[in-house]
Amino acid sequence: MNTPSYSALLKAAGLTAPKRRELVVTPRILDEAKGIVRYTASDETLDCYNEIVRAAGWQFTFFSKNAPFVDSHDYSTIKNLLGQVVDFRVNGNALEEDVAYSREPGTLAEWAFKMVRDGFLRAVSVGFIPLSTASRYDRDRTSFQEQIDELGLDAQSAAKLSCVYLRQEQLELSQCVLGANPNALAKAYKGGTLSEEDIDKLSVLIANTKNAAPAAVSADAGAASPRTKLAILAAIQTQL
Predict the structure, then answer these.
(1) Is residue 240 scored above 50 in pLDDT?
(2) Cα angle at 203 between 201 and 205, to 5 degrees?
(3) Which of 6, 54, 67, 141 lies at a 20 to 30 A Cα distance from 129?
């Protein structure tokens, strides 16, 4: 018997497929020893999909029971669980969330925290289910125009806007590389955030997590030359 997909179950329940809201912010380290970081997880700016998520519409019915913080919206393995959202609130027109990273040495979570701490990784993304929207494609665009007026959008932004999410249920928060410096890993390595031992371990960890063979990683990679190390970094980047 075939097991229905997650999207099929949502459709059967009258819900749409999960959406993602990516945002590149400046994280605030609240407690380095405990790995607690504060993020602005979402705000009411026009995003790259020409959509806006209203802050007052955030709901946490399911999220509050577990509040997972994961890697890149990938729920296929518990290895991708980076930590937990320990506090969340709507503050003005923004959704703020405090994340506690796992500080277990040699894990993807520890690597992610170090990258965030030293400024090489700044993007987070909210996974959510839309509950109510106003769209320029609605038959009656009264609500859509009201949102444009409430948000005070200029003519250019209003012309781009396609949809406003009025109510949405958060599912999870993800760390993601979207919007991060594409050379972040190499810069972090050169800057000392990631050691050679980190690169050795993480290249294998990421490859195994993605169910792929570790690329360009040898048994004695710890003794490899800087040029070989950069080749390993390039291999890691292609698997993220």
Answers:
(1) no
(2) 65
(3) 141
